From TrEMBL:
SUPFAM superfamilies: Ferredoxin reductase-like, C-terminal NADP-linked domain. Residues 1-19 form the signal peptide. It is a multi-pass membrane protein. Residues 438-485 form the FAD-binding domain. This is Ferric reductase transmembrane component. Keywords: Ion transport, Membrane, Signal, Transmembrane, Transmembrane helix, Transport. GO terms for cellular component: plasma membrane. The lineage of its organism: Eukaryota, Fungi, Dikarya, Ascomycota, Pezizomycotina. It is found in: Membrane. It comes from Podospora anserina (strain S / ATCC MYA-4624 / DSM 980 / FGSC 10383). Residues 498-532 are annotated as: Disordered.
């Protein structure tokens, strides 16, 4: 098979391809020319090397007994080829095309020109040939007729092969367009007039509920992964079905076939090529879905966490295509008895590299490894992805030397990746190096004030923070955190500064139901001027220390901080348009909901924190004191069902719920809101910000 493909490659133009097969690249046009060439190229000529060994029907001069130079100067080879083309190609094939084919393909090498043009070769034929090249002929000594059946088989072989390749490109493009276009079209659909009522009715069935019980943020048992929502699952099912259809449809066989001994081999050959092309076509989409600077995030109202779910599933489908491609090739070569020869080639080795790393990525992207060490997972993930892309590139490079455009899928994938990385760098440079004040507000929560940054005070934004001084060995490490405009905390900041200065306890008991111990904290003074920002300008992050980089965050007056952001998290339009906004937070999840208080006039905030995080409640007393309705619990849990029932009883026609906090809280709220939204009459809008994807 490789020999066949290599032969096909050698017969093509030597210049780099401009597009894909069927879209800017033709393989075997005019096919009659190739059919004739294939039928005569195996004949021995006077200048052929006689002891070279057997000649294959597909020897195109690359190592057979007859060199391109030999063909270029051989009268009878040229006249036989010209006569065949003249009698086989129909009138619809323009003369210029035949001349072009002749100048590029007649000798089997684009760089070796025949001594005559096509017209000159025809002019050399004084009498039409009457006989064929026979068994007794040691070499070609006259212009001969070529066996019409052989010419036809060779012509159709090339034609069908090219048709199959065109369909591969077509189906690859369909996958890419549908994969990319579906979120855009669905988002546009929801914005059409009169769609809001339908959308309200569909959301409790498609957008909110999880496919498996109440699991979504919480992992499935045995860390099997995270269950998708019904809507996400529908995308995945649709896309998987489309992949199966694109891999299974549109095969046409022609027998006898010059390259495949039987129909099974032929269809298997097309199928293995198809799955390879489909895998290539998915590469840019897989990378796009995972990107921070992802055009889909800008063009749709889907959240980054949804795209991360799709990234994982499309990547699994991609890996399935890769594995099927490799297995199909293996089965085919074993059947064609060419496996041993293929196994020793470089293209095969690189194909194995790409396949093995794609499989490794499947395994090492499991929730188990992501939880075990997120940073190791991330670095390993990127390195393995590089091996998959490089392996794929060399795989087709050794086979086709960039003749058929397969590499363009990979270039597109690299472009998507580099675009994301470039914008990240631009964002970090635009924000500039900053000095942050880090304040421990409770046992495991720190407040990070970064002055001088002016970002929109919109809710639902996060930024990726780098603290290179904390991790000099891994300066690239960065983590996402929700953004609070420091101005929102202003009144508390002033109070806390004076409180810290006088040593008094600034706890307010008015709004806080306390049932746990209180952690007292001593905050270092935050000096806005020294940090290069006007009072109140800047952003504040509240970070709960985890096992990695965040563990190292401690009181600091001037910590070098780089910021990549802001990025939108969940869409906020729907909830903000509600009559009533219910903000539910658990622990440090308060950072995900607090910015909403400045954007809606009818807000209730419900927040529970562990007793050990009471310092966080004190730190946020300022903004909380400005919210008329609140339920803040220290050391006890929220009763979400009761909260929702109360809103329902009040009679708001549209209630927006934003929940941010631990997985259990998020999943419970999702399930409860879904149930309420299905029964009506209240319309419920839900946004879940789970601090994970
Ligand atoms: C959109 C978003 C907003 C967030 N906002 C806040 C916030 O305001 N305050 C807060 O305390 N936490 C927030 N988090 C969670 C925070 O990003 C993680 O707790 C932090 O990255 C853990 O870092 P670590 O190295 O100390 O953790 P580790 O102990 O090494 O990892 C703990 C877990 O955190 C997650 N995680 C770690 N690194 C990343 C990363 N680079 N990207 C995504 N997930 C990661 C993984 O699920 C991992 O298993 C937010 C997360 C997201 C996705």
């Amino acid at each position: 098979m490789r020999g066949l493909l290599t032969a096909a490659g050698l017969a093509a133009l030597a210049v780099p391809a401009q597009a894909l097969i069927g879209y800017g690249i033709t393989m075997y046009d005019p096919s009659c020319g190739f059919g004739c060439y294939d039928s005569v190229s195996g004949f021995m000529l006077e200048c052929s090397v006689m002891d070279h060994g057997p000649v294959g029907a597909h020897s195109h001069g690359a190592g057979g007994p007859t060199s391109p130079e030999c063909r270029a100067g051989d009268d009878y080879f040229l006249t036989t080829l010209a006569y065949c083309m003249n009698t086989t190609c129909d009138a619809s094939t323009p003369r210029w095309k035949l001349e072009k084919f002749w100048s590029e393909q007649a000798t089997g090498s684009k760089t070796v020109a025949a001594k005559w043009s096509y017209t000159e070769a025809l002019a050399q034929i004084k009498e039409p040939p009457t006989d064929q090249y026979g068994e007794d002929d040691h070499h070609l000594t006259r212009t001969v007729l070529l066996d019409p059946e052989t010419v036809k088989a060779n012509t159709l072989t090339r034609e069908y092969f090219e048709q199959a390749e065109t369909i591969h490109s077509q189906y690859g493009l369909i996958l890419l367009i549908v994969g990319f276009g579906t979120p855009v079209v669905i988002s546009m659909f929801t914005r059409l007039p009169y769609m809001s009522t339908l959308s309200d009715k569909l959301k409790p069935y498609l957008v909110y509920p999880s496919l498996i019980g109440t699991y979504h943020v919480r992992p499935l048992p045995y860390l099997l992964g995270n269950a998708a929502t019904v809507g996400q699952s529908l995308y995945v099912i649709m896309f998987a079905a489309l992949n199966i259809a694109m891999a299974a449809a549109g095969y046409k066989s022609v027998q006898p076939n010059a390259w495949f001994a039987n129909e099974w081999q032929e269809v298997m050959g097309y199928f293995s090529a198809r799955t390879g092309v489909l895998a290539f076509a998915l590469t840019p989409l897989v990378i796009l879905l995972s990107g921070r600077n992802n055009i889909l995030l800008w063009a749709t109202n889907w959240s980054h966490s949804t795209f991360m779910v799709l990234h994982r599933w499309v990547a699994r489908i991609y890996a399935a295509q890769v594995i099927i491609h490799s297995v199909a090739e293996l089965v085919l070569y074993i059947d064609m008895e060419s496996y041993e020869a293929e196994f020793k080639t470089e293209y095969w080795a690189w194909g194995i590299v790409a396949t093995v790393f794609a499989c490794a990525m499947l395994v090492f992207s499991s929730l188990f490894f992501r939880r075990w060490s997120y940073e190791l997972f991330l670095v390993g993930h990127i390195i393995m992805a590089v091996f998959v892309i490089v392996g794929s590139w060399y795989h087709v490079e050794f086979l086709f030397q960039r003749r058929w455009g397969y590499e363009f899928w990979l270039y597109a994938a690299c472009a998507v990746w580099f675009f994301d990385r470039m914008i990240r760098v631009f964002r970090v440079l635009k924000n500039g190096p900053r000095r942050a004040v880090v304040t421990e507000v409770s046992e495991d929560i720190v407040r990070v004030d970064v002055k001088g940054i002016r970002w929109t005070a919109a809710p639902g934004l996060h930024t990726y923070a780098y603290f290179p001084a904390l991790s000099p060995w891994r300066p690239w490490e960065n983590h996402p955190f929700s953004i609070l405009p420091t101005a929102l905390l202003q009144s508390k900041r002033d109070a806390s500064l004076s409180g810290a200065a006088s040593g008094s306890d600034t706890r307010s008991t008015a709004d806080v139901e306390k049932s746990g111990g209180v952690t007292s904290t001593s905050a270092p003074q935050r000096d806005d001027q020294a940090l290069g920002g006007a009072p109140g300008t800047g952003i504040t992050l509240y970070v709960r220390k985890s096992k990695g980089l965040t563990k190292l965050l401690a009181n600091h007056n001037s910590l070098l901080t780089l910021l990549d952001g802001p990025y939108p998290d969940n869409p906020t339009d729907g909830v903000l348009k509600s009559d009533r906004l219910l903000l539910i937070a658990g622990g440090v999840g308060i950072t995900g909901v607090l910015p909403y208080i400045a954007r809606h006039t009818n807000v209730k905030i419900c927040w529970s924190v562990k007793a050990s995080a009471e310092g966080l409640v004190r730190d946020l007393e300022g903004p909380l004191s400005r919210v008329a309705e609140k339920d803040v619990r220290v050391g006890s849990r929220l009763d979400v069902a009761a909260l929702l029932a109360e809103e329902e009883r009040t009679g708001w026609s549209r209630v927006g719920v934003v929940v941010c906090g631990p997985g259990g809280l998020c999943d419970d709220t999702r399930a409860l809101v879904t149930a309420k939204a299905r029964t009506g009459p209240t319309v419920w809008e839900l946004e879940v910000d789970a601090f994970s994807w």
